[in-house]
Amino acid sequence: MAGDATETRKKLLAAATEEFAARGIAGARVDRIAAEAGANKSLIYSYFGSKDGLFAAVYDAQVVLTIDAVPFTADDLPGYAARQFDHHRLHPTVQRLTTWSRLERGTDASPIEAIASSNIRKITAIEAEQAAGRLPTRFSAYELLSMVLAIANMWATGSHQPPGAADIARQRQSIIDAVKLLIG
User: Fold this and answer.
1) What's the number of domains the chain is made of?
2) Which residue in 142, 174, 181, 179 sits closest to 155, CA to CA?
3) Tens of pLDDT along 6-40?
4) Angle at 16 between CA 96 and CA 69, to 5 degrees
5) Residue 133 and residue 180: Cα distance in Å, rounded?
């Protein structure tokens, strides 16, 4: 029975991920999510408490997947930015969920623990590189991380037209070059 509950929860999260990424929080329908997962919609409320609780679980899971998939290295910020670009290009769901969260939850949303703890580790690593003289100190570690992430994600919410392979390579290289200029 516990295996069935775990499997049902996974199916609900998978269906909800697609629904929220496509339609946002307000546009998502628990009826569609439950039908896609082959589950009773009352299980959504039982497992997640509310539609917003389900969105939070989906978003948290996507954030953790992204953090795990994109290794951070403070001694190679251009490479880190390029890996972020690659991941978001191949897995746009987390960017869509981030956009919906910002639009619909605004600044009232609770901070995601995975992001907060990951950013603390990244900032600490950048500070160590700055203290060792390997990264510039004209920006705080927080500012530097924020700028690197902004550069890495600058095309994530851009054109709806998929770029060709040459465009992708040019975008990736421009991200690397921009971060090099930032830290040079």
Assistant:
1) 2
2) 174
3) 899 999 999 999 999 999 999 999 999 999 999 99
4) 55
5) 15
Give the domain extent around 182.
Answer: 70-184
CATH of the domain at 21: 1.10.10.60
Looking at the chain, how many residues does it have? 184
Classify burial at 162, counting beta carbons within 10 Å of its beta carbon; exposed 0-12, middle 13-18, buried 19 or more.
Answer: exposed
pTM of this prediction?
Answer: 0.84
Match 């609770």 to its residue by tokens. Answer: 110
CB 154 within 8 A of CB 175: yes
Residue 139 per-residue DSSP state = S
Query: Do 86 and 53 share a structural domain?
Result: no
